[in-house]
Batch of 4 targets.
Target 1
Amino acid sequence: MAERESIENLLDEQRRFPPPEPIASEAHITDFEQYQAMWKRSVEDPDGFWAEIAEEFEWYRKWDTVSSWDFVKGEIKWFEGAQLNVSVNCLDRHVAAGRGDSPAISFEADDGESTTYTFNEVLEQVCRLGNLLRANGVAKGDRVTIYMPMIPELAFALLACARIGAPHSVVFGGFSADSLAQRIVDCTSDVMITTDAGMRGGRTVPLKSIGDAAVKLAAAKGVEVRCVLVNHRAGDGVGVGAPDWVEGRDIDMDAGMASQETVCEPEVLDAEDPLFILYTSGSTGQPKGVLHTQAGYMIWTATTAKYVFDLDPERDLHFCTADIGWITGHSYIVYGPLAMG
């Protein structure tokens, strides 16, 4: 290999590829010099940098300190002393700003059917589901397992849990009953939200049946799931008379939401309260539950959605090819784009 093509040389890339002028002129960061200045401030005055960004969001109480960390102990905290609700920042804040009728979520089903929900409509569904969870005994700090396909109700479920302060644990809809049970047991979740069935690549996936099997496996390991909310999508239906319906445990989520109020008082949460637990894949050992807290995660995902993807709420419709069952889907399908509007 010629010297100029050596590995070291290729790793030291100096070329620049500027975007076309019409794109650059409308970007949040219009040139490399602006990026360098922003980066320089972020490393020289990180607390000032992130405090300025945090001012864009809604707070019940502002922070005492922006950040504190001890890398030896592995203790890192953001916006201590502050109080907020992430769902309010993802939904209510935009409605209050006059954008209630703007598109919030666009969904294309496996059969090609498309549906768009406005911020007003998403907020209503989230409030109904949050009230349904509360009516079934779910309170701040309770862990809720979510095992659903890629449908709008999955996003509603995340935001409903965030609204009432119940950390959610989303399990990828392609995982087996064993994998689902493993995660239920580890986070000691006694409530699950699922779907009768989902569509993937033209075939029906019996999520409720898989969920039932997981609940039995979890019970054998000492963790009882007392409540299962079942959304109707593509299976044999829900409610009394549906296959394997467990009376007293299973709840018709659609009917239950329809009976709830459209206003759900958001829980006031500390910045370092848990927002969600998401498990590693387990491909190199036991799946590990990674806990993300409220403020730092919300601000990071909203900020990176804005600057890395250059999203503009007045201009862009953002598509992310990830699955909400993984961290990219949490961050850049649900929380990041919605938090920035």
Note: The longest helix spans residues 119-135.
Target 2
Amino acid sequence: MISGALDRLTDLDKRIIVALQRDGRASWRAIAEAVGGPVTTVSRRGQQLIADGVVRVAAVPALGADGPFDSFFVRINTAPGMQMRVAETLAQSREVRFCTVVTGSYDIIAEVIVRGGATRYPQHVAELQLIEGVERWRSDLILHVYKVSFDWGRQLYGELLGPPDTVEDEAPPTHAACAPEHFDSADRAILSALRADGRETFQSIAERLGMNESSVRRRFERMRTTHCVDMLALVPSAALGMAAETFMTVTVRPDRLDDVARELSAYPFVRYLAVLLDQNALVCEVISPSTAELYAFITDSLAHLDGVQGWTSSMELVFLKRGFIETPWWRSQLASALPDRGAIASA
């Protein structure tokens, strides 16, 4: 259903999506005020966007909630015709934070979270590397995250929002304040409910868990204030007219690595930016309205940054998972791209 829903999106729908990216739990009244529409219309359209799978709102514990961790940027080659099967299996793993099928020299790009530190990497990934169809597996330790942007749609409707909703300089010490001992079973149960539906009311959660509404609200607000929970609004880029999602590995002169990273972080269409252990390189995820604008960014900006030595790029084709949450549209996206096998057989 999502394909047809995307074709019918209005300007108001897109504004609602951007507002949900900003705060997935904002009331429909607050969103209506932000987008300049009637509350009843905004509420009806917003709920329809969620029902159609155009938007999925979810809450997940911050990475530090399960203790110390390290992140690995993984690039995979598969046997011919096995890309989607391998990607689907990867996406089902709790260790995989994001997973996408791409163009270029690799077939799949993913991020694997190793809880307990990098020394546990072999035990964590041994099973993943044995997935049928995996032929080559390359892992790079992510040393430092400079930027994670949760509201990339602000490129189009920035006037709706306040300061950018980003996490910058996502170093391990930031997560140390969010430790397992800061959660009890009730906190985990609340987050479990909000993982399934990030907009479920506190009253509904309270009734299901046998708690009172004020306690559920207070616990959630505490977790959010202490940055122990991430609110996600997953949206296909096509919903906002973004036609080019690209992962770039940018090699940089060592003495300019930090400077180049901070310059790239300033670009609103840079959604994710981190430094890798290998090859004095940055991994940069760029989202732009068209390949023409991607070309302009590469030729007019990236190519002229002092210290940049080169780059390789992969266009994202199908994004199966982001922020530990499966995207609600990838299956229908894939189905709409494939021919009707029954029709072919009867032809």
Note: The first strand starts at residue 56 and ends at 61.
Target 3
Amino acid sequence: MTFGERLKELRGKKTQEEVATGIGISRPRYSHFENNRNEPDLDLIQKIADYYEVTTDYLLGRSEDTRLTKEQDDIANEMAKKLEILITQLEDIDQSKALEQLEMFVYYQKAKKNTPE
């Protein structure tokens, strides 16, 4: 399931306008997320997760569990804040490169875990 599909599922009978207002963005911007045309930044992912009361891992498709323990949630929030601080210190073009590198690192680590020795 894509990020946008998860958003549509979580929204249920609410309108896009209701959700967008609840997280502090415009309806067209939220619509772009649901239609997988754009991806939110880390801060907005956290706001969306908080709004729907699910984990960021669930939103991003890394978990089917919608809830974290309080300790896991605190650790995840702290890590996201640190990453955001580091990323925002870079120029825009370097921010994209840094995120691409991080995604590649995560992909590599997952592949390494799933490879028998």
Note: The chain has a mean pLDDT of 85.
Target 4
Amino acid sequence: MVLLRSIITVGSYTFISRIFGFIRDILIAAFLGTGPIADAFFVAFKIPNFFRRLFAEGAFSAAFVPLFASKLTDEGKQAALRFARAALSIMVVFLFLFVTLLQILMPWLMYFFAPGFADDAARFPLAVELTRITFPYLLFISLVSIFGGVLNSLGRFAAAAATPIMLNITLIGMILLATPHLQSAAHSLAWEVFLAGIVQLIWLVYICKREGLFLHLPRPQLSKSIRHLFKLMAPGILGAGVLQINQLVDVVIASLLPTGAISFLYYSDRICQLPLGVVGVAIGTALLPVLSRQIRNGNDSGALNSLNRGIEFALLLTIPAVAALFVISQPIVSVLFERGAFGPFATIATSQALMAYATGLPAFVLIKVLAPSFFARQDTATPVKIALVCVFINLVLNIVLMQIFSHVGIALATAISAWVNVFLLSICLRARRQFTVDTKLKKRFLRILLATLGMVFALWSISEFFNPLEFNGQGARVGVLAILVFSGGGIYFLFGILLKAIEINDIKTLFKSNSAD
């Protein structure tokens, strides 16, 4: 139950961060809308975040956390901290050189990330300029991932989970304060991303010092442990980051479509990120240290149980989320974003992409549940092979489906490739006898489906009488949407309790248990 408690801790902070993120995106939509300036900014925002998720939160975390946990178990806390300091020192040097190089190569890099901008006299130079401002964010946020990885491995999930809140609060404040004083809202947002990276780093440095974890910078050395870290990171760049690579492919292909496609995909993805972030990031963050510890201690049955409970928890929250996003997708987009530069056409286009992304929501989360089972065993080679297959499938589907469904086809291709990824990961784990679906999970899955069907019928019935689109005034529309969301959640919870998809005893145990292993 410590696993579940950790998931709840990380998920709670992530949920708060996503709420602030929604406020941020509401302001972005109002100031930028879905025009060429918005497209240029979203490319500038996605490029450093792509590398962050690929290197820092993907490959680095997948390799660093098991090695840190191993040293913590075998050699003690001080040896583990020495390893963390060595990793921090090497990463600072590598990232500084990497960021500097890409700043120089940014115009050529843009031809790769947004080839559709090449002949656009407005979007191309603006995207290059804005990305040069946002790209140093990668350096700061990658260092944040090291400090966060140490804290998570030591069971201090709250501080690291609260870090993204700093990003969103900084962005919200600066959007309102700095935008009137800069040449455009896009420039204001770009500088805010840069500043937010510094704020997040300062926060975790402070927390680590408060906890007595002094991670200073020794002289960089390629020790045996660091070489092993890089060896594990190399294939993990693709293995842990397949979703990010697919999203990058989405941006590349979307840049070839008419103006607005990148923005439609951004806003729809942001809505999907609430359940994905709360559930997926929480489970992935909490599960990896637990699995690493259990496998290291030879507790295979405990690791299998943790994996099944992680899947169970993921399905419990994502399946009803998918259903709700289908039933009230347009009201959600309209209430959140339709104001200022964001008009009715953008609402329809974004809600269509949202439904397509939603079909892959359980898969996006299950990838984050299944992948740690490989990483905990220091196996990053298998996920990379699967990742290569999925990237190829996503690329082919993007090209085919965008011809039929425009930007919606791009979102649908990402969802399909994510399900293929889940299928292949589970097949590999089952073949190695490292995963079997236990009876409890099978029963819970059927009950979750029944509870979701009950929620869908009730939510659809309520939305017939309380449709936010039929109310005048922003306050009334927000209130009606809140009624729909909380009614849907409450009805699902009620059906879940009645059908035993949700066990009250598990919730009680969550707050009483003190042992995971």
Note: The radius of gyration is 22 Å.
